[in-house]
Design goal:
The chain is an alpha/beta fold. The protein has seven helices and nine strands; from the N terminus they run ββαβαβαββαααβαββ. The termini are far apart. The structure holds S-adenosylmethionine. S-adenosylmethionine binds next to α1, α2, β4 and α4.
Length: 192
């Protein structure tokens, strides 16, 4: 088993689970700047559970989901309450803060890796396939005044994703960003 340390937390990793990288760390930093004491938090697509582990210090409750069974096992091993489901299917109630580092890379059929690993990165032909599905039902899941933190890349189309968030009824603003060799990562905050 391998592990990764970020800030004051060490996260255990297993094969076929997304290894936390710059995108995960940017989302953790944005979470820490935007979470409020007592928030009820949902993390969609938790992978190893790194973002939820940080949220647990401040939130009154954290629930995470992932479709990849390896990720569910890994996150549970890191102490996260995690449900295996598609996005947030079957979850009841509302959340004050919903966070998602989605599969955001534009991916053609012949670029797919096969198996569960595709869920980590494959955002469909324009990178926004999973994001669009995620945003469709988000309004009902958010408490009044609730916020969404969504990690996107310049490769995904930041303005296109902002528009999808606005179409979902949210007021949108970028809250953090970082530049990398082939992309710019941005965390968009959507508020109800
Ligand atoms: C880029 S990884 C992010 C993992 C982790 N949150 C992080 O920041 O390190 C995307 C995660 O979303 C999960 N995922 C992709 N599509 C999903 C879906 N439809 N429902 C639930 N989880 C999904 C993948 O299995 C993967 O763990």
């Amino acid at each position: 088993m391998t592990s990764i340390t970020y800030r004051d937390k060490t996260i255990e990793l297993v094969p076929h689970v997304y290894e936390p990288a710059e995108d995960s760390f940017l989302l953790v930093d944005a979470l820490l700047e935007n979470i409020r004491n007592g928030d009820r938090v949902l993390e969609v697509g938790c992978g190893s559970g790194i973002v939820s582990v940080f949220a647990s210090d401040i939130a009154s409750m954290v629930v995470a989901t992932d479709l990849n069974p390896h990720a569910v096992k890994c996150a549970a091993g890191n102490g996260v309450t995690v449900v295996r489901t598609d996005l947030y299917a079957g979850l009841k109630g509302t959340f004050d803060l919903i966070v998602f580092n989605p599969p955001y890379l534009p991916t053609s059929k012949n670029e797919r890796l096969g198996g569960w690993d595709d869920l980590m990165l494959d955002g469909g032909p324009n990178g926004r396939r999973t994001i669009a599905r995620f945003l469709k039902g988000i309004w009902e899941l958010l408490s009044q005044g609730g916020r969404v933190l969504l990690l996107v890349s310049s490769l995904t189309g930041v303005s296109e994703v902002s528009r999808l968030m606005q179409d979902a009824g949210l007021a949108v603003e970028p809250v953090s960003e970082s530049r990398h060799f082939f992309e710019q990562l941005v965390v968009l905050k959507g508020s109800k």
